[in-house]
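4.2 Preliminary Data

To establish feasibility before requesting continued support, the project team ran the inverse folding procedure on a target of 563 residues. The structure was first converted into the token representation described in Section 3, and no sequence information of any kind was made available to the design step. The complete token record follows.
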């Protein structure tokens, strides 16, 4: 798995689109780095920029961005609602795949050293990149903000990189904080009030750090201290959450500005519901919310499942439908349209350079199949038929979960629908896998064969591609065979008005098994590894025989139900 990290610098400019775009554009001057998102905020006067790539190109892009921001943003004139201390206020690195947090922290240190040595910008390492325990917390590093940067010359505030003085250059650029951290969701909750004080009170109710304890009414009384003279805090209700309240002039409302630092501990939907309850306690209503920057797909799918359970509705629906439910349930389109293709990180990282068969319309897929090209062929069509078969059973499960008078059984049918969705997704994926297998064979046969080493490499490539071309349809047959369990159950206990749909699903599953078996056989024609061939043929013969039995039995059940 290739190493992949995300970088999410926050620059202290959210109003001048020319400056914002000029700063963000330097990211794309580095090969191998993909700019994912630019999210400006007018009232906060801050823009969150997101890009991703291999570690070395990413830190090069981050360096260029920090340099450009220091050239175009003058901190002597910068004002905004959000705490800040520099032109590039923070620059976190986040491990995405193939790299540890420790390794990511090493890249953060490498970036910081360059920023200090080459740009003369001071700063601090925080969170997992921190070299001092008390500097793990960003709020501590940023205390005093830009206006308090004379602290740089104090021994306890000596920066981790860059000059330890508030010189003329630093007066323009300010300081920056660089980190390695887990994926953080910047999440704002919209309130039907203009009071930043009341919003702040709700944020204190929620955030892990809570509020400082005071005597008397808890608002204006003397601060309560412990035996060491440190203020005693009343913890908030949610772990791994940071937050403040503020007024957003461009929207004309107050918001809770929350940082969800570990969505495995406090996911988005829990933060939303907790904000709703705490706001209600103070006579305030939550009207919606917004994601600043990007969000992992899992966060929205988990939110959809949470709200579906509360409604006692089936969880066995498509990914796209779940995203829609999450958006509406969380009110993510309250202030502006929420475009999943631009806000969900997996959708942005995904390769859209080549069209997939499964992305085609039905008519386009049929036209492509009917064309002179040998692919897509019977293997892809078998996978698609299998997907349709289990989709029909899933539909019956969802209809049954929603049937009047069957409310107490929604979880039972939801479980079957979830199993059906899982099989459907695997079979849909196999539609393109089968065509990829065919293309791999064509590529192997087209390899050069002049030199002895080329002949050996070509022979092995043909063997590997042939096995892949046989194993994909075998997988299709196995998955389609597995779908009979769901289809049979829906024929037996599902909504009786949809019995015929279960019957058609069984016919599709049988056709998928038989069609995939044919592809296993033809792709192994002439293959010389007899033991491998015998094993594969034996496997598909068993599947074919069982598919015939299952389809016949299910058809009998269906015909009795609709007679």
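Position-by-position output of the design step:
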């Amino acid at each position: 798995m290739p190493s992949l990290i995300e970088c999410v610098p926050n620059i202290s400019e959210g109003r001048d689109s020319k400056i914002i775009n000029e700063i963000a554009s330097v990211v794309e001057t580095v090969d191998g780095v993909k700019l994912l998102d630019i999210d400006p905020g007018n009232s906060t006067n801050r823009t969150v920029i997101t890009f991703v790539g291999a570690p070395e190109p990413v830190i090069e892009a981050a360096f260029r961005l920090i340099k450009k921001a220091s050239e175009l943003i003058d901190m002597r004139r910068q004002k905004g609602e959000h705490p800040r201390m520099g032109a590039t206020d923070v620059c976190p690195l986040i491990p995405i795949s193939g790299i540890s947090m420790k390794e990511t922290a090493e890249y953060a240190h490498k970036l910081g050293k360059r920023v200090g040595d080459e740009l003369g910008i001071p700063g601090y390492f925080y969170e997992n990149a921190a070299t001092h325990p008390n500097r793990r917390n960003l709020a501590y590093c940023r205390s005093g903000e830009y206006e308090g940067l004379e602290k740089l010359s104090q021994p306890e505030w000596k920066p981790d990189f860059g000059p330890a003085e508030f010189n003329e250059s630093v007066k323009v650029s300010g300081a920056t904080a660089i980190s390695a951290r887990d994926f953080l969701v910047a999440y704002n909750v919209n309130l039907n009030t203009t009071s930043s004080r009341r919003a702040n009170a709700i944020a204190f109710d929620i955030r892990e750090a809570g509020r400082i304890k005071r005597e008397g009414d808890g608002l204006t009384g003397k601060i309560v201290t412990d035996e060491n003279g440190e203020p005693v805090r009343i913890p908030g209700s949610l772990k791994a959450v940071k937050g403040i309240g503020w007024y957003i002039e461009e929207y004309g409302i107050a918001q809770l500005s929350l940082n969800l630092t570990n969505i495995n501990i406090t996911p988005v939907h829990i933060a939303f519901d907790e904000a709703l309850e705490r706001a209600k306690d103070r006579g305030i209503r939550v009207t919606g919310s917004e994601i600043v920057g990007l969000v992992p797909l899992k966060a929205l799918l988990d939110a959809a499942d949470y709200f579906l359970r509360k409604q006692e509705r089936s969880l066995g629906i498509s990914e796209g439908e779940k995203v829609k439910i999450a958006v509406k349930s969380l009110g993510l389109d309250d202030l502006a349209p929420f475009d999943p293709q631009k806000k969900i990180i997996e959708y942005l990282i995904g390769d859209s350079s080549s069209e997939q068969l499964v992305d085609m319309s039905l008519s386009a897929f049929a036209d492509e199949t009917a064309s002179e090209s040998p692919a897509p062929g019977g293997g892809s069509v078998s996978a698609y038929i299998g997907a349709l078969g289990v989709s029909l059973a899933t539909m019956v499960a969802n209809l049954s979960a929603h049937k009047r008078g069957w409310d107490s059984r929604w979880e039972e049918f939801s479980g079957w629908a979830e199993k059906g969705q899982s099989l459907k997704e695997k079979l849909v994926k196999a539609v393109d896998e089968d065509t990829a297998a065919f293309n791999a064979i064509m590529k192997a046969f087209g390899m050069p064969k002049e030199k002895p080493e080329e002949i050996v490499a070509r022979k092995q490539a043909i063997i590997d591609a042939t096995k892949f071309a046989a194993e994909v349809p075998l997988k299709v047959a196995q998955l389609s065979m597995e779908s009979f369990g769901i289809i049979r159950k829906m024929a037996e206990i599902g909504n009786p008005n949809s019995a015929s749909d279960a019957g058609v699903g069984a016919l599709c599953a049988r056709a998928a098994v038989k069609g995939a078996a044919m592809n296993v056989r033809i792709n192994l024609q002439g293959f010389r590894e007899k033991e491998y061939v015998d094993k594969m043929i034996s496997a598909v013969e068993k599947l074919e025989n069982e598919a015939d039995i299952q389809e016949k039995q299910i058809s009998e059940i269906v015909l009795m139900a609709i007679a």
